[in-house]
Write a structure and sequence with these properties.
Number of strands: 0
Number of helices: 14
Helix content: over 70%
Structural class: mainly alpha
Length: 268
């Protein structure tokens, strides 16, 4: 719950992961607690794609100005809040430019043909993982996916591939941040990477029925295409996290003692 709530507040699973790694390295968190917080952050980051569907980019400049005013106040907590609001405003402003650019590119025959011919969802996962690693943000990658699908540049299958790859990519970016951290911190990131890869592969097996379910909901409830991707991201993260949470001890045992051959019980 801490992972979910804090990620929802600061709108960054990478940020929560970085804080968790710092606490783990300093001995303020146990290994199991750090893994659970990081897993929770995967659900918390699902709120951001829903925010993008409200066309909040129209108010991006107003949000930036509000954040700047708050950052001028001498109180430390308010100043931090102001900086967070400025960051969110810049993200929304950038995504507004991105959506405008993708809308223009959707009229380009060469660009649309390249993406439409990328029919392999597996290839979409690889591309999205690379993009999310570079951007260090699954939310931004999901927003790009929403724009592409909303402009009918990619199919629902490719969009789901992009969604699955976004989670893997942001984990790889977090591991880069943890290179100078303790071995336990690196191990917690590795466990999260395994979690997202296994979850993506499991959903990949049921990709067609999952896509048909989403299309049914989209048509039946007249959902926008952006909302459809937001719901797919939410369903994927909640389902995969709940399954791992139920079998958490077994999952942790397989990851630490079988895959990486590390006994976390000996760590302080």
């Amino acid at each position: 719950m801490i992972g979910i709530i804090f990620t929802a507040l600061i709108q960054s699973s990478s940020g929560v992961t970085a804080i968790t790694i710092a606490f783990l390295s300093s001995g303020l968190l146990s290994f199991e607690a750090s893994v659970l917080i990081i897993l929770g952050s995967n659900i918390g980051t699902c709120i951001t794609p829903f925010i993008f569907t409200f066309n909040i980019d129209k108010y991006a400049l107003l949000i930036i100005v509000l954040g700047y005013i708050l950052s001028l106040i001498n109180k430390h907590k308010i100043k931090i809040l102001g900086n967070i609001i400025i960051g969110l405003g810049l993200i929304f402003l950038g995504l507004g430019f991105l959506d405008y650019g993708l809308n223009y590119l959707s009229q380009n025959i060469l660009f649309t043909n390249i993406l439409k011919n990328t029919k392999s969802p597996f290839l979409s996962i690889i591309i999205s993982s690379f993009v999310a690693t570079i951007l260090q943000s699954s939310s931004a990658t999901i927003a790009i996916t929403q724009s592409l699908y909303n402009n009918q540049i990619i199919s629902i299958y490719s969009a789901l591939g992009f969604m699955l790859g976004a989670n893997i990519g942001t984990c790889l970016a977090s591991y880069i941040l943890a290179i100078s951290s303790s071995n336990e911190a690196k191990l917690s990131i590795k466990v999260n990477i395994i979690f997202n890869i296994v979850g993506a592969l499991a959903f990949f097996i049921f990709l067609k029925p999952f896509a048909k379910l989403l299309l049914f909901l989209e048509n039946h409830y007249q959902l926008t295409k952006s909302i459809t991707i937001a719901y797919s991201h939410l369903i994927f993260n909640i389902a995969s996290t709940l399954i791992v949470f139920i079998f958490f001890k077994q999952f942790l045992y397989v990851c630490t003692k079988r895959l990486f051959q590390v006994d976390t019980n000996t760590k302080k």
